[in-house]
């Protein structure tokens, strides 16, 4: 490709709404162009990268036995109503009425449509297993689109959907996709981590997220460096800090803690470690029975330095639908104000739910249910009843014991770019997608679904690979593998001849090369290609040619290397093969 | 590809809503699956063909210097309002409101977006010419979607948009695209014709349509077999049947023609040729001036056996906005009832507009403006004034003189699959898309646009290439080049070995081969592949193998040919190269 026939458009400054580095660099490198909030045109330089992502994904899907099809963007509301998601999806689902007033959705995902396709095509277990995928545009009407391709509204995803006759088959299909994802992310050349994830709203029996590691990532990834344990923060199990509860050593003492309504302030006032304090959260669960509203109260206890994990909380029996108690409720139930609650002296009907670490604490500090006072030296069993319920309620922290018992946990940041789900029969049952099994009996299809955020990969790859000059693409994703930068090609016959020869040789060798024939000054030319992030650059200039040399510089190299003209192609091939 | 790992689903009968053969065959061959009215899932067998179409289009676009990008599907209403098309497009434009109530369109085409991209990127004539294209989903909310992929609502098109500094540049860009289209349709292996077209609502200075020739085509294509003249029916110029008007030979005679309100009935009653009759159409044009409505009346005259061309009519000065006159108006203006109007004795203020052929008639038959009577032997100049206006008003018919004077016209049917337009500055002026010319003065960009209906190609190719067994794909578009049909692969080791060897050899030779390992009976297997339309088939059976042979049959062959096993691959390669 000659740059003059391509389209290159770079900016010195990123627009002010570009908050994160990948958004800034993609805008500056002319890879995307904003059309509206969360809606981008993929400019030639950006689309070329997207096509490379798609090609790798497609090859590995085909290799795994998945079959490509293409489902429509505009999907009838009726299908979404069958699974109840027409109502559940809320404002993120872009709803459309056609000229006849019929309702449709712009697909945010395609479980309903693929299940509809399969239920009419599959009659017998003999037709299974099946795995269909498509690479398609999606739309999610985010309330606050931002971060460029990382949280846009219109974006491209690959989604695969597997159909099996039983759980074991589905889990085997899941494993095939998981392995394909590992190959895909390895081929991208990105540092990534697969972590166990909570299934969340989509339902089903298991799932993993694939994250690109980046210090700017939105998600915390928990892993054990000495084992293969890995989970996202929602799913990472927190063991109690003390495996067993120490014996009580202190007497229960009520101490004045004026204005200390948070554990940090209590620890500071008492000059005691924050890890010795217990924080209390008051929750209310409302029940309606025979038209009458009743309320149930829960007291959650966490160590003062630990954070509540909302997903884990939602799984505690009876707490799926909860809210924080109001000040009025707290006053009524606990006889005090927020900030001074504690388990000692709570009356029925409060259910005390202690985090595992709190349940194994001794001599702890907690609110005295008396405004301005806390207890020190509090102990379970002696000063108050054992907690009604002990549960994993907190986020893990670095240094926690790994749940597999094989080391301690570390945490790093990641960007979610892939997600594999064991869906089970959630969709097939709702949509009556059945097949006849070996005994001629109808059974619901066992499903899995597997997504990769194609356009999001670009943003994530940049967040992982950039410097102050611009993007540093891994080889597999670079828009061009090699750029040739002639110095004064229009003035020097020698430069022109050497450039054209190397360009022809590189093309003949199948190298994805771009020749910068725009005639720009060297400074601007180099700045453009460093910003765009092409991995390999060769400069052809009269000064070097006089000594028979070209200048090679890798995008991560701090200096250029002189390479004899005759050896240039072999040298470049060697670099590309690394 | 092994059929067991692909997805093949054929039907004996087409669904009742499939009215045309391409729709029926694509449904039966499992290439598309209906999701809603005019909305289809492209099943694996269909998508594979679409990808082949896209690949050819992409190669030729790149080869022509066009650069690929991808514009969003969801486009802000504001851009469409700038060109006025938000209002003009009517119900075909799918309008969408997002969660914040902002208005968007699902793209039916992308002139507005590309012009918006270019106006912010292009500053100087030095950056021109440019040609951007994208292959993208479109949506047109057809009132009555039908014919499968031929008139669907959601479909795929390639659209290219060229930007030039002046008219000559734009016309050069247009020529490059026109030539690329010729190469594309040649590579598809389809019989096609490029015809001059009317620019219609899109505006601009010139356009051509590319049609796939098919007897079932919706459009009439006019061409001259002895020259390169070709136009669609709207644009084909009709010369007068008589180059000059013959002298009057008959006396004007008023004859009774009871109940003969149409030329056919008059000719029948009078036993005179239909080509001697003149039919009259009464039109009204309304003008509003200073809040007062005035009406202008036009009498159109066509030869009795000719058809009115609405597009030509719309171009007659003063007739851009017209309607047929009401019975009341006819009675008031002409003093008679419809069916008996004629030019003789019409009073002012009627403007008589005669088709060129009518203007050169002598001794013609026309209404007498008296219910139940016609004139014979009517002559211009002698019996009535010359027509106020002579214009080309009719559709050409076979045998008409070609407008280039190089022969006579023929007509064939076609399906429009491509359209190239010289847009000029219609969009760039509306959207203020200017560049600085050599003198530093802002000038509007000269634009062209170039579309190919990617999914429509499939339907058109089938309408041109089918028989009673199914589809007959041209080699370039076939989902697979070759199918291997083993007879009893699970029973015979010899069949299995010969099949697997040929399959491996074909794959190694880069042939797009599918091995039908589904274990179906021969009859069903052959019927499936004839329906799907794979061009080349090899049957591997014990009977043939005993004599060292395989059986080859091309999709258009009436019989199979025995081919020695050892020569099979070379034989197939020879067939593929034809």
Automatic annotation (TrEMBL), chains A, B:
Residues 33-474 form the Aminoacyl-transfer RNA synthetases class-II family profile domain. It catalyses: tRNA(Pro) + L-proline + ATP = L-prolyl-tRNA(Pro) + AMP + diphosphate. The keyword Ribosomal protein does not apply. InterPro entries: aa-tRNA-synt_IIb, aa-tRNA-synth_II, aa-tRNA-synth_II/BPL/LPL, Anticodon-bd, Anticodon-bd_dom_sf, Pro-tRNA-ligase_IIa, Pro-tRNA-synth_IIa_bac-type, Pro-tRNA-Synthase_IIa_type1. It is found in: Cytoplasm. Keywords: Aminoacyl-tRNA synthetase, ATP-binding, Cytoplasm, Ligase, Nucleotide-binding, Protein biosynthesis. Gene3D superfamilies: Anticodon-binding domain (3.40.50.800), Bira Bifunctional Protein, Domain 2 (3.30.930.10), YbaK/aminoacyl-tRNA synthetase-associated domain (3.90.960.10). Its EC number is 6.1.1.15. SUPFAM superfamilies: Class II aaRS ABD-related (SSF52954), Class II aaRS and biotin synthetases (SSF55681), YbaK/ProRS associated domain (SSF55826). Coiled coil: none annotated. It comes from the Bacteria. Its main location: cytoplasm. GO terms for molecular function: proline-tRNA ligase activity. Belongs to the class-II aminoacyl-tRNA synthetase family. ProS type 1 subfamily. Catalyzes the attachment of proline to tRNA(Pro) in a two-step reaction: proline is first activated by ATP to form Pro-AMP and then transferred to the acceptor end of tRNA(Pro). As ProRS can inadvertently accommodate and process non-cognate amino acids such as alanine and cysteine, to avoid such errors it has two additional distinct editing activities against alanine. One activity is designated as 'pretransfer' editing and involves the tRNA(Pro)-independent hydrolysis of activated Ala-AMP. Homodimer. Consists of three domains: the N-terminal catalytic domain, the editing domain and the C-terminal anticodon-binding domain. This is Proline--tRNA ligase. It comes from Duganella lactea. The gene is proS.
């Amino acid at each position: 490709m000659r740059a003059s026939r391509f389209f290159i458009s770079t900016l010195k400054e990123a627009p002010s709404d570009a908050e994160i580095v990948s958004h800034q660099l993609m805008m500056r490198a002319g890879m995307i162009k904003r059309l509206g909030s969360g809606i981008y045109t993929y400019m030639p330089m950006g689309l070329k990268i997207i096509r490379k992502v798609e090609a790798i994904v497609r090859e590995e899907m085909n290799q795994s036995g998945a079959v490509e099809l293409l489902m429509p963007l505009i999907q009838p509301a009726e299908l979404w109503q069958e699974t109840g998601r027409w109502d559940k999806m809320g404002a993120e689902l872009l709803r459309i009425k056609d000229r006849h007033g019929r309702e449709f959705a712009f697909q945010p995902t395609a479980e309903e449509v693929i299940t509809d396709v399969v239920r009419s095509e599959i009659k017998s277990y003999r037709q299974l297993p099946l795995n269909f995928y498509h690479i398609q545009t999606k739309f999610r009407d985010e309330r606050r689109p931002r971060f460029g391709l990382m949280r846009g509204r219109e974006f491209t995803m690959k989604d695969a959907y597997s159909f099996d006759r039983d759980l074991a088959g589905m889990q085997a299909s899941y494993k095939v996709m998981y392995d394909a994802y590992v190959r895909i992310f390895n081929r991208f050349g990105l540092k990534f981590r697969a972590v166990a994830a909570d299934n969340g709203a989509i339902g089903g029996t298991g799932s993993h997220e694939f994250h690109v590691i980046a210090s700017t990532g939105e998600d915390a990834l928990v892993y054990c460096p000495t084992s293969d344990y890995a989970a996202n923060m929602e799913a990472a199990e927190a063991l109690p800090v003390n495996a067993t509860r120490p014996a009580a050593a202190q007497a229960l003492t009520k101490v004045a803690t004026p204005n200390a309504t948070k554990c940090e302030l209590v620890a500071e006032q008492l000059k005691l470690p924050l890890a010795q304090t217990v924080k209390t959260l008051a929750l209310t669960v409302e029940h309606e029975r025979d038209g009458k509203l009743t309320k149930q109260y829960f007291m959650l206890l966490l160590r003062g330095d630990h954070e509540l994990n909302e997903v884990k909380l939602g799984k505690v029996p009876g707490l799926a639908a909860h809210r924080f108690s109001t000040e009025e409720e707290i006053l009524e139930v606990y006889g005090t104000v927020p900030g001074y609650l504690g388990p000692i002296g709570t009356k029925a009907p409060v259910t005390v739910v202690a985090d595992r670490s709190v349940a194994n604490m001794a001599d702890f500090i907690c609110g005295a249910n008396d405004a301005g006072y806390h207890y020190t030296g509090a102990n379970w069993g002696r000063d108050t009843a054992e907690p009604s319920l002990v549960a994993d309620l907190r986020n893990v922290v670095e240094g926690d014991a790994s749940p597999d018992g094989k080391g301690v946990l570390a945490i790093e940041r990641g960007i979610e770019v892939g997600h594999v789900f064991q869906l089970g029969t959630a969709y097939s049952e709702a949509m009556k997608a059945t097949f006849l099994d070996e005994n001629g009996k109808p059974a619901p299809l066992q499903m899995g679904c597997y997504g990769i955020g194609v356009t999001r990969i670009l943003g994530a790859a940049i967040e992982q690979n950039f410097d102050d000059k611009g993007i540093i693409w891994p080889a597999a994703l670079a828009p061009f593998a090699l750029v040739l930068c002639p110095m004064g090609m229009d003035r020097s016959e020698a430069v022109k001849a050497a450039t054209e020869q190397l360009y022809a040789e590189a093309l003949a060798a199948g190298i994805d090369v771009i020749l910068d024939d725009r005639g720009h000054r060297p400074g601007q030319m180099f700045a453009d290609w460093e910003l765009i992030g092409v991995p390999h650059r060769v400069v052809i200039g009269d000064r070097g040619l006089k000594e028979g040399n070209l200048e090679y510089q890798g995008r991560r190299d701090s200096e250029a290397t002189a390479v004899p003209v005759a050896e240039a192609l072999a040298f470049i091939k060697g670099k590309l093969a690394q």
